[in-house]
Amino acid sequence: MVFDVGDKVGANTSSMLQDVQAGKSTEIDDFNGWLVDTARLLNKGLRLPAHEELIALVKSQVPLTRAELCAKILGYDYC
């Protein structure tokens, strides 16, 4: 089922990418920022570095290849 959905929406452009392309602000703080803030609230030492990096990348609006994105968020050059 997951693969079927992926096939159906694979060519779609996400609303966040549409916002970036239109020069609008994104919902990154609403989605990922909420996760980061909630983790900190629940546990003072809990961090979500992948989400923190993703927020920074979206806000910087620097285009990355899939390999570059994987390297920055996951620490390896393939995904």
Topology summary:
Layout: H1 2-9, H2 15-21, H3 28-42, H4 49-60, H5 66-73
Please give a structural write-up.
The chain has 79 residues and is an all-alpha fold. It has one domain (13-73): Orthogonal Bundle (N-(1-d-carboxylethyl)-l-norvaline Dehydrogenase, domain 2). Helices cover 63% and strands 0% of the residues. It is built from 5 helices and no strands. It has helices at residues 2-9, 15-21, 28-42, 49-60, 66-73. The protein is globular. It starts with a helix and ends in a 6-residue tail after the last helix. The model has no long low-confidence stretch (mean pLDDT 89).
Keywords:
single chain; N-(1-d-carboxylethyl)-l-norvaline Dehydrogenase, domain 2; globular; 79 residues; 63% helix; mainly alpha
Report a brief summary of the structure.
The chain has helices spanning 2-9, 15-21, 28-42, 49-60, 66-73. By secondary structure, it is mainly alpha-helical.
Q: What is the straight-line distance between the termini?
A: 21 Å
Main sheet: strands, sense, barrel: none
Q: Any idea what the CATH superfamily is called?
A: N-(1-d-carboxylethyl)-l-norvaline Dehydrogenase, domain 2
Structural class category = mainly alpha
